[in-house]
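Can't paste images in this forum, so I'm doing it all in text. The chain is below; anyone willing to post the predicted structure tokens underneath?
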Amino acid sequence: MRRLSEDLAQVEHPDLVQAIRDFARERVAPLAAERDQQGEDAAEIFGELARMDTLGITVPEEHGGLGLDTPTLVAAIEELAYADASVASVFAGHYLGMEGFRVFGDARMKSQFLTPMARGELRAAFALTEPDAGSDVGAMRSTAVEHEGGWRLNGNKIFISSAAEADVMLVFAKTDPTAGFRGISAFVVPTASDGLHYSKPMEKMGIRGEHAYEVSLDDVVVPGHHVLGSPGDGGKVAMHALNPSRIDAAALANGIAMRALDLAIAHATNRVQFGRPIRDFQAIQLALGKMDCLIESSRLVTYRAARQKDSGGDLRRAASIAKYVASENAFQVVDAALQVHGGAGYMRESEIERLYRDVRLIRLYEGTSDIQLLTLSKELTGLFDSRGKLF
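Text version of the structure:
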């Protein structure tokens, strides 16, 4: 099974990670299958995580958080994902909602919103994607026009995680429809605002314990001081939030993959064919060894990106590599684990079947795998253009 002492040696705050591990095994894992079957939001678990002071791990202490390093957050997400990907996704989604406030919020904005978010008194959501604007953020059609000292918002968002469960949503809309990416602004919108409407939770293949919604804004009015940063900063706010969230997504993928490997090892030990456990067969040994290599490489690039975030370096490349490698590797690991289980792994009551559905989403959100590769390619070709020659 997992080498727990080696896991804890990777982080600066092993006691906190151990506490989250214990909580995940004792409170989160036992009801993971039920949450999946019922499509039940993990609101109760979110409250317990708040009482454990885990919702502001990387938020500075002066703003209600713990002021810890990003590798500790990565480890926390891995532990929760190992127990239930839905809970880990709710947890990581809250950090995505907070990140813009941490980077772009002024003192008043941080006091009013970031501090209670870090303490778990407010739950955050992030509303960027639209039916016609996913990776092409500049194509969004939601608008915000000035109105009596504030702003009037109209538009539609889709696939917005935890929108109806959250207290505050960071909504992106065009304040200058002619300026593309540079015409976007970010608005702090209380989720109980008049004119804000939610669909029923969308039916998802996996991670069913985190709800996603279509959200419509019909003349939603917010005060002028609810602009995060300045008008026109919305594109920068989104990118500054999404790069760290790609590290979080990588951590989520790692946790799922580690659980799949442990299930595969257990099944290979207990399943007897031709008079001996199937783990004695070379084909199974090769599969388990490959899975271990895939997970180890994923975690190496994920923790590297986490450390780079804390060092203040250019995060875009490291985050894209982590997201791509971890999500693609995790899918391979879960698929191999299902193969080790044989027909039993394909049955609905199998935990591997749930992991298979859960892991597929990680290759899509926070930028698809193809988007990560395009990001890396543009950086590589731009570097070549700037040098003008190979040597």
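The radius of gyration is 21 Å. The longest strand covers residues 150-161.
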